[in-house]
């Protein structure tokens, strides 16, 4: 009788160690704090059923000492011979953070699953050849692990963060000396560090500094990028982040529109379609956020002035409103189309917020009802819920029903419980503050930055 071949788990194969094949976690993985994954395992999570309704919650899965779903089993091209990828992967805790990024942390950055996630199939290969991207990626992974599980890896996390910052300073100097080939590494690193700060609550405003640095780098970097897939990935990641910036600012004198149009044009001209980093099927809606914010605030200022609103500003709002209202998501499955509709609805609400007399009219009430209905159809476990901070904060000032307010807080609370993101917790507190103060509600499109001032903090609603 032929002897049955011993398969062993993936981490033991990577480390060329003997595996005792104990499941769900072998002795070696338990001892070295590794994710014990098996090539032939069935998924541990059920696929999303688009027919499900209402608020969906599930007890949080324990990642440590639990096999990854089959869709997250590491690509051996990425994970074979880890020491050949980077010498620091010989350290068990660093190796764990690397595996955790693939299995869990990367999913918090994208609405796409598994191999469709560009943070896996574009960023991780980039990290294998770039130490600075590697360090930033591990630092982000450690922050997500600490939020969702424990601070057992905090020291390792912040060691990688410190290495990323030191490398960033050094490579920025080289970049200034016209070594433009380093630009894509710098942009990817800065965007990763920005995401780290946002998810970590960013109490010191570091995310805004990273974004400012990114804006200085992007035009020269993307102009020299020869990889269409990487170009589309970075442009979309940048577009999403920059589009949401005006919401956090009271003044809007910064020429953000030009930078947004630049990134959007790259997506239009790029031979590879948008990768679905965060925009999904709705980059046009993200491109419109900044413009709608400017128009809505200008109209609000004119409505509160004795002279009243100008015909020019009213026409500009009408043109934007018609454009947003007539937009249709393309090449999207049902769930991604719904999240696109959430942003579309929030944009329409933002454009109506300029006029206080529309807060109780039929048009506004229909929009609010539609948004609540969309939320009830998007399970909290969906990957798309990572991008709901902006639309919920934008719509919140106009929600008058205590029932709807309670549902939004319940929904956002479930998202907070799932991801433990700092910016989600800040958004939850922001909504409660807005609903408790009529003076903030009456500020229309200025409501969010004024509420942030009242909270004593400013953060990106990513």
TrEMBL record:
Residue span of region Disordered: 41-60
Keywords from the UniProt entry: DNA-binding, Nucleus, Transcription, Transcription regulation
Domain of life the protein comes from: Eukaryota
Domain spans labelled Zn(2)-C6 fungal-type: 8-38
GO terms, molecular function: DNA-binding transcription factor activity, RNA polymerase II-specific; transcription cis-regulatory region binding; zinc ion binding
GO biological process: positive regulation of transcription by RNA polymerase II
Pfam families with a match to the protein in the record: Fungal_trans_2 (PF11951), Zn_clus (PF00172)
Signal peptide: none
Record's keyword annotation contains Transcription regulation: yes
Subcellular location: Nucleus
Transmembrane segments: none
GO cellular component entries: nucleus
Name of the protein in its database record: Zn(2)-C6 fungal-type domain-containing protein
